[in-house]
Specification:
CATH topology of the largest domain: Alpha/beta knot
Strand content: 5-15%
Largest sheet: 5 strands, parallel
CATH architecture of the largest domain: 3-Layer(aba) Sandwich
Oligomer: single chain
Shape: elongated
Length: 295
């Protein structure tokens, strides 16, 4: 999957791809990214991307036209239906379910890409030679069409001219009920949440299936269970004995119970009535048991 980020701070966004899971995924060719500065799509000598709001009020509003040109250039390269996500506190909450939905775009469009390579079908791959004629600062790796891609639009100031959002059909997404100085941090949160769900990005493919909010076998989305590592005793606190037993069935049961109880205590709204009842029964059965052995 390719993540295409539109921002007036391109270097800030690029730096995030230089560390950890994202860096390894880029180096392995599992994801790629492009960064576009809307200033490169302006026509005035000051490269203006914002202006005062109609109706008065504090702050500035990002202009529609430079952003529209940037999005149009990306859609021309990656497909007219390439989705645009605008990071905004007014958007729908980013959840694990939404991250999974976006990650599946790579599966659907990836299948189309394989079909496009069928010799019986027209060749739809674009040249991998870089375009030297463009004045924009689009920084991407070699591009092949159709490419599963997401365009992430980062606002600043008071936001973006609403007419642009209506014109391009942007999907608004929020990472929480608070306000940031701009959409860059939110965009990178979304990129990380989606990228780690793509095949091969995590070293262990089972990792994402047991994390918080991951769907379990019964469809429940629980918080992750507590984790422990060496030493066995740290500042008087001992690792639960069951984790040292080597009995995999008991270890799994302990972890599942721990995940259920943690969710019940911290996020009960995630649980069905049946699971809440199961958690209450489990708590009753643990009364009087050594705290070190409780999930």
């Amino acid at each position: 999957m390719k993540f295409l980020i539109i921002t007036i701070f391109p270097d800030f966004v690029r730096s995030v791809f230089e560390f950890g899971v994202l860096r390894r995924a880029v180096e392995a060719g599992l994801i790629s990214y492009g960064v576009v500065d809307p200033r490169d799509f302006t026509e005035d000598r000051h490269r203006t991307t914002d202006d005062a709001p109609y109706g008065g009020g504090p702050g500035m509003v990002m202009l529609a036209e430079p952003l529209y040109r940037a999005i149009s250039a990306l859609r021309e390269e990656h497909g007219a239906q390439t989705p645009v996500i605008y990071l905004s506190p007014s958007g729908m909450p980013l959840s694990q379910g939404l991250a999974e939905e976006l990650a599946k775009l790579s599966e659907v469009r990836g299948r189309k890409s394989e079909e496009a390579k069928d010799p019986a079908l027209p060749d739809c791959e674009a040249s991998t030679e870089p375009d030297q004629s463009s004045d924009s600062t689009l920084q991407t790796s070699d591009i092949r069409l159709p490419t599963p891609a997401l365009i992430l639009l980062c606002g600043r100031y008071e936001g973006i001219d609403q007419r642009l959002l209506d014109e391009i059909g942007a999907r608004e997404v929020s990472i929480g009920d608070y306000v940031l100085s701009g959409g860059e941090l939110a965009a990178m949160v979304l990129v990380d949440a989606v990228a780690r769900l793509l095949p091969g990005v995590l070293g262990n493919e089972d990792s994402s299936g047991t994390e918080s909010f991951a769907g379990r076998g019964d469809g429940a989305k629980l918080l992750d269970w507590p984790h422990y590592t060496r030493p066995e005793i740290w500042r008087g606190r001992r690792v639960p004995e069951v984790l040292l037993s080597g009995n995999h069935a008991k270890i799994l049961s302990f972890r599942e119970n721990a995940a259920l109880l943690l969710t019940f205590r911290r996020r009960p709204e995630l649980l069905s009535a049946e699971l809440r009842q199961r958690a209450e029964s489990l708590l009753d059965s643990l009364q009087g048991r050594d705290a070190a052995e409780q999930p």
